[in-house]
Amino acid sequence: MRNRDEGPYYVIERESGSGVGPFIMGALLGAGVALLFAPRSGEETQQDLKERAGRIRDAAEERIREAQDQIEDRLEQARAELMDRVEAVREAVDSGRHAAGEARDELEEKIQRSKAAYRAGVDAAKTAASEEGKGSKDAKSEED
Predict the structure, then answer these.
(1) Segments making up each domain of the chain, as ranges
(2) pLDDT per residue over 50-96, tens digit each?
(3) What is the dihedral of CA 90, 95, 96, 100, to 10 degrees?
(4) Collapsing DSSP states into helix, strand and coil, what is residue 26?
(5) How far is residue 38 from each of residues 29, 42, 50, 132, 144, measured CA to CA in Å?
(6) pTM score
């Protein structure tokens, strides 16, 4: 018996898959052996094997078709969702461009108004300065 003070005890397990494939192979092999040892003639057994193989093939083909249909449906759904998202991004980009254009136009208009106001202020200052200069000259001329 092992002493617990000796250290940790490790158990390693391996997963070897789902086991469905080996199960099916075993079932088919067992069915084949059972048919071979059944009390029938060789022709009957062969005919029965052919029929069963045909049914298995038909069932496999049907499942493959179903899987293909499911994959195609999922692919189409993913494609549609992707196209919706691409369209939403395009709309957002277009909206952003439009908003940026409007903001640029508004800013240019404000700049033009500011320039006009600046020019008007400069002109008013010049006018006031020249009038003040004339008023001083007039006052000096009256004093003389």
Answers:
(1) 20-101
(2) 898 899 899 999 999 999 999 999 999 999 999 999 999 999 999 99
(3) 140
(4) helix
(5) 14, 10, 16, 131, 149
(6) 0.42
